[in-house]
Write a structure and sequence with these properties.
Layout: H1 2-8, H2 14-40, H3 43-73, H4 78-108, H5 115-135, H6 147-172, H7 176-210
Helix pairs in contact: 2-3, 2-4, 2-5, 3-4, 4-7, 5-6, 5-7, 6-7
């Protein structure tokens, strides 16, 4: 009966709700692009860019709050509502993680980053783009296809790149005071990759439930 009512009133429930997910996913793409630009610049330019990431993180929090309100009013099942809420929160956490990496770079005044870390940031951008495409199919989750598998592949690639960056760091050596900030940045990028995989997993659970 609940599913029948959801189909009967799509404009009142599904349309606005899934539109918000699209906005949130597009914001993630913008934040990932900002993040890559920040990683590729030096300290002075990073200080100019980091407020933009903070603004994007703030907007993501607001969108997640609005999604929660729509879910509370929707006619979808509690299980679906829980997964969708987890999905919105994890996308928001991803944007926050991007900002966290930026703040670490500015606070520690880390210089040029290892190339593998910049490549990992490009993978984060690609995963964000895939998330936008996935957000367009949330109203019909059977159309998600291999979204989760693609994100898992990008995460594995990203993890390898982060390990390469850490390997370069250890090979260069230096004092712990010099190495620790870059190590923290690498871990922060790794957390972002993990959040993106968690996002895809939440979406895939919706697909499995609907199959």
């Amino acid at each position: 009966m609940v599913q029948f009512l959801s189909r009967l009133f799509p404009r009142r429930t599904e349309g606005p709700l899934y539109g918000l997910f699209g906005e949130l996913a597009e914001l993630l793409v913008q934040a990932a692009d900002t993040h890559s630009k920040l990683l590729g610049h030096g300290y002075r330019e990073r200080t100019r860019i980091v407020p933009k990431l903070h603004e994007q993180s703030t907007v993501a929090e607001e969108l997640s709050r609005r999604i929660a309100e729509r879910l509370a009013q929707s006619l979808i099942t509690p299980y679906e509502a829980e997964l969708l809420y987890e999905l919105s929160l994890t996308i928001t956490d991803t944007v926050d993680s991007l900002e966290h990496t930026a703040q670490l770079l500015v606070a520690s005044r880390v210089g040029a980053l290892p190339t593998p870390l910049l490549d990992a940031a490009k993978g984060i951008e690609r995963a964000a783009e895939l998330t936008v495409v996935a957000s367009w199919t949330l109203h019909s989750v059977r159309d998600l296809g291999d979204y989760y598998l693609q994100i898992r592949k990008l995460k594995r690639q990203g993890d390898r790149l982060v390990r390469q960056a850490l390997g370069e760091l250890y090979q260069q050596g230096g004092s712990s005071q010099e190495m620790l900030p870059l190590h923290d940045v690498c871990e922060s990028v790794g957390r972002t990759l993990a959040f993106q995989e968690r996002t895809a997993r939440s979406a895939d659970l919706l697909r499995v439930k609907d199959s």
